[in-house]
Amino acid sequence: MTATPRSKSIDKHEVIKQLLRVLKKKYADVKPKAELPVLESMLYSVCLENAFPTAAEQAYQKITANFHDLNEVRVSSIFELELLFAGMDQTEWRSMRLKNVLQHVFETNYSFEFESLRRKTLELATKHLNKIKGLTWFVKAYSYHEALGSHVLPVDDRMLAALIWLGLAEPGTTPEHAAEALRGAVRKADAPVFCHLLHCFANDPQHRWAFKDLESIPKVTEDETKFDTKERLERFFSDCRAHLRAEKAAKLARKSTKHAPAAAKHAPAPRKSGSSKSKPHAVPKRAAKPVPRAHGRKGR
Fold first, then answer.
1. Where do the domains of the chain lie, and which CATH numbers do they carry?
2. pTM
3. Which ranges of 67-209 does DSSP label H, i.e. alpha helix?
4. pLDDT digits (tens, 9 = 90+) for 93-112
């Protein structure tokens, strides 16, 4: 389905080292989000899950720009909140998670403040966040890391697909289990940079098609297993550029085909060969001259 079995075990530390070296150059201009209060950090993570950081930032900014306060967001309908995530995937689920987080915090504290989470242990924080309906592992892990500084790896669905392709996660696992299995190979000091760059890679609009789900993960051939991570990434980016060029060419072809019938419809019909000769233009007849009227009677 995805990657072929490896002929030898993978040195995860070496893969991560090469991965960071390549991705730091590619995504040097994409900065991670600055530290936010706990509640706002959770709302941002709802926007960030399975989305590129720039798209997540745009959606997050709409929350403060389009509503008077967070209570107005809480009481808004799902349909109204979906407009915040226009152009993104799973707009309904994002809207529901947004409402559920705000509803839980409001019912617990009667305000929109959640800084008390910073004073909890990871175990107590986990029990607390598990009470919020529909909260994903990514949102929970992002909150643990931002609020508690815990050594956890926020992994979403697309990041999981990328980890499987890289050989850093087993097919069939979940984001939570993959993050837990990989945690020992990522130093705590490197975890924020690693998660940020892996997230950018997996959700990059230029090749999101490759990691949109577990079925779309590019297959790894036996020859490709001989390449190191740096070479595999370079080949992958080259294939993505070719894919984008092919998509652009196909789009232009569809566009020209779409306009061709309309142009043919308005074009003058061609004259058929062998058809009857066209009639010459009729020459207008000259008006007959009036006959002069004879005066008087003849023979008189």
1. 12-235 (1.10.340.30)
2. 0.79
3. 70-75, 78-82, 91-109, 122-129, 137-143, 157-166, 175-182, 191-203
4. 999 999 999 999 999 999 99
